[in-house]
Write a structure and sequence with these properties.
The protein has 5 helices and 7 strands, in the order βαββααβαβββα. The chain is α/β, with parallel strands linked by helices. It has a 7-stranded mixed barrel with strand order 1-3-2-4-5-6-7. A hairpin with a 2-residue loop joins strand 2 and strand 3. It is globular, with a radius of gyration of 15 Å. The structure holds zinc ion (ZN).
């Protein structure tokens, strides 16, 4: 079963971005590693909050150029583009019909409810293979570690592999 793992540090960065975007939706990419069924988020790439007026309200817009740039940035960092995050201001973090139409297979969709400007709840979704809807994925938040999480197998501390 697919699970998503991220550190409190990454979660704080993500929350800060979507809170700054409030009352509009904030969005960006999730970078990290694939480890079997686990998706380990190691960094985010926030998209600028000032988007075209028609895209700013009630839906997020990620352009083909955004995908190309994200792919390049991920490669530079030695990471994979795992998916996308965005916020649902003052509404449940359940994918909308718009989200479903624009979803890519294998991408994870991390959705945060921002209530009155504060991040309240995070849920992660993946598109069902027949595109009929989304399946929820287990989200695991782990404490930030002083050494980079990178190259540290999960479940082991950095010192135990050195
Ligand atoms: Zn949405």
């Amino acid at each position: 079963m697919t699970t998503v793992v991220l550190t409190t540090e990454v979660l704080e960065q993500l929350s800060a971005h979507v809170e700054a975007a409030y009352p509009e939706e904030g969005a960006g990419f999730l970078f990290g590693d694939l480890d079997g069924e686990q998706r380990i988020v190691r960094a985010i790439l926030s998209l600028p909050n000032a988007r075209e007026a028609e895209a700013r309200h009630n839906r997020f817009l990620i352009t083909p150029q955004d995908y190309v740039q994200a792919e390049q940035r991920a490669v530079q960092a030695g990471l994979e583009v795992l998916g996308v995050f965005h916020s649902h201001p003052d509404s449940p973090n359940i994918p909308s019909e718009f989200d479903r139409q624009w979803a890519l297979p294998y991408f994870i969709y991390f959705i945060t409810t921002v209530e009155q400007g504060k991040s309240k709840n995070h849920r992660v979704w993946i598109l069902h293979p027949d595109r009929s809807g989304f399946d929820e994925i287990t989200l695991q938040v782990v404490p930030s570690s002083p050494s980079p999480l990178r190259s540290t197998p999960l479940g082991q501390t950095a010192s135990s592999i050195e």
